[in-house]
Amino acid sequence: MSNIRFLLSGLLACLLFNGCMKDNATEYVVDADFEEYVQRFIIEAAARGMEIDFSDTGLLIEYSDRIVDGASGYCYLGEHHIVIDKAEWTALTDTQKEYLIFHELGHCELNRRHKNDQFDNLLWKSLMRGDPLIGTQLNIPVPYHGFRKNYYRNELFNEYITAPVWSNPSFAIDDIFQSDKELIIERQNTPRVFEAPTEVGENFEMEFQINGLNSVPFITELTWGTGSQGFFVRIYRNFGTYIGALENGKDQQIFYHPTKDNLNKITVRQRDGMTQLFFDNNLIYHFDELPFNLTNIKLEAKDGTGALVSSFSVESFNLNKIL
Hints:
single chain, alpha+beta, six-stranded antiparallel sheet, 5 helices, disordered N terminus
């Protein structure tokens, strides 16, 4: 999703959009596509002791085809007026739509500005992350997904809360032993993995020993779940790795890592309600477990046309139940 930004100058906003001032400052005019997410914002505020109904300020949220600089939306500072890029909105998951509206209402209703502090593991401290961003910050999304959502909602309404436990994880590859595993599927020397396992259970581990990642011209992609829903790891040549979630066939990027080559092993471990991702036995990221049974696993390397890369191979693939 493109960076969510806001205009610093009300004068500039008026030059970009006709009639940027509302005739009635307390008028509530919210396009039906956005109403559900505004109501969620009101509910989350109430859960934290804050009453919001917009009766004193009004609220205008509308589509516009004149968003600039690739932004998804803008809040007009000093007004309760938000504009959303329609083309981007239709491509977003439900979670991303909620994030976008919450972020813009953070500006308009809560008078929050962008906050670009990061934890030691580089995850953002605030849902209000935004311009100006420098270097690889541009690549790192806010992981507004799963169990992390509650922290970001709390921080939205109180930016002085303490750091969450997940800002300093302690998972290790040797947390479980080989004796804790029961082999379900094993493959050797294959150009790709494409499996449809059954009855795997809630606790499992996938281990891929790979060869030739640094020769892949475009993307090496691992997905697991049901096909249209689940998680993905996408390693892009000369860029890095995105980790994310699939929601009804739409993507949500939730983490970026600079790994783009020189990787020999990928391990995915789902255990006790948590998924852990390891590259060469080093913890890269942890996130939610699948909300359904694992029925689809795919790992393949492709060039820019979508063709498989012959120089890439999976030397071994093991799927284990964790006992």
